[in-house]
Structure formats: structure tokens, C-alpha cells
User: Which sequence fits this backbone?
């Protein structure tokens, strides 16, 4: 019997893009004062990126936008400023600096997953290797936290309202993960932050909430 650990070990490493909005513009739906909102957005992004960088199945990692502090092994490129889909396109174009397009699977991960654990991302990337395109829905089931494409297969990102249904229509296969997975707990509202906090938050978000 093939275990999840075996599948993760056999799967190819994945080049990953994480779009991150500037802390001064991010998390506009979080009902807290602006300085606190900016600090939370920055903490979410750093915890997400650090967890992704620690995942064994992640190879190259490109952040589009900005981080308030550098993360070793992560390359940051400018956000073109034309919305999320344009930012994702810029990140995908930057992978490998255009030198080896199509040689490895690619993925896009949202940057507001403060309870993400590396093992959860590894498991999802391993499961995605069985499909040309795959996605992970958010905990509510209507949004999307991760999309993955096999090497040589282009993406058709459709993040935003009802993105899960639009990704299905674009040929992405839904991956089954527990609703309690940190990979499904993106945070846009206070209620979603409370739900994520019921899991193990990353150190930066945890420290900020304890302050």
C-alpha cells in the first residue's frame, strides 16, 4: 500500500508562486484598525511563506509583492499592480527566470494561510501529481487556496469569489483535504482568523495575537 509519505517522496518538486499584497493594502475585510490590520497581513504572509519554504516538495519559490523581512530561499519580484491575476502571471513568468519553462510542475498558493503546515502542502502537491491540473478549496468550499499544474501544462487562475467552481470548470481536479487543514484556512475576516486560531498558527501570527 502506498502511503501519503511515499507519495510525497515520489512526487516531483514544484515551483511555487505566492502573491502577497503590500501590508498597507492587504486584508481590507479584517475589522480592526489600520495599523493592526497591516501587522496581521504581514504576519500572515511571513508565516505562509516560511511554511511553504519548509515543505519538502517545494522547489523554487517566488513571492510577488513584498515581505516585511526576507526569507532565505525565497525570491521576491515586483507586483505589476494590476490585480491578483496579473500578479500571479508575473510570478509564473519569473519562475526559472524563463530559462527552463515547462520542466517542472507549477503551483500558486495564497499568501494568507497563517496556520499552514509544511506537511499539508507536501501532501497536496503529492496528490496533485496525479492530475494535469488540481486545486484545493478553502474551508468554506467556494474559494481556492492552491492550484497546481503538471509540468508543461499552463495555468488558468480564477481566484476571487466562487473561484472553486471556476477552477473546476477550467479543468482543475479538486483535492480532498480535511476542512480543518491549515491549507484551507485562508483569513480575510475576524471570523476566519478565529477559525484559523483554533489550529496551530505560525509563530509570527501567534506572537502578534498574544501581544
Assistant:
Amino acid at each position: 500500500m502506498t502511503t501519503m509519505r511515499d507519495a510525497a517522496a515520489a512526487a516531483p518538486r514544484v515551483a511555487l508562486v505566492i502573491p502577497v499584497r503590500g501590508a498597507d493594502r492587504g486584508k481590507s475585510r479584517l475589522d480592526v484598525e489600520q495599523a493592526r490590520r497591516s501587522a496581521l497581513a504581514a504576519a500572515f504572509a511571513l508565516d505562509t511563506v516560511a511554511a511553504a519554504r519548509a515543505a519538502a516538495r517545494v522547489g523554487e519559490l517566488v513571492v510577488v509583492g513584498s515581505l516585511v523581512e526576507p526569507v532565505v530561499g525565497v525570491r521576491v519580484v515586483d507586483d505589476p499592480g494590476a490585480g491578483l491575476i496579473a500578479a500571479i502571471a508575473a510570478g509564473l513568468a519569473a519562475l526559472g527566470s524563463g530559462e527552463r519553462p515547462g520542466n517542472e510542475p507549477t503551483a500558486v498558493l495564497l499568501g494568507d494561510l497563517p496556520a499552514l503546515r509544511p506537511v499539508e502542502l507536501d501532501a497536496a502537491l503529492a496528490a496533485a501529481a496525479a492530475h494535469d491540473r488540481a486545486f484545493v478549496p478553502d474551508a468554506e468550499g467556494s474559494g481556492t487556496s492552491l492550484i497546481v499544474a503538471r509540468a508543461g501544462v499552463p495555468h488558468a487562475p480564477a481566484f476571487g469569489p466562487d473561484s472553486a467552481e471556476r477552477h473546476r470548470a477550467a479543468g482543475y481536479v479538486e483535492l480532498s483535504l480535511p476542512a480543518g487543514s491549515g491549507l484551507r484556512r485562508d483569513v480575510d475576516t475576524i471570523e476566519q482568523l478565529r477559525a484559523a486560531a483554533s489550529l496551530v498558527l505560525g509563530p509570527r501570527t501567534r506572537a502578534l495575537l498574544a501581544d
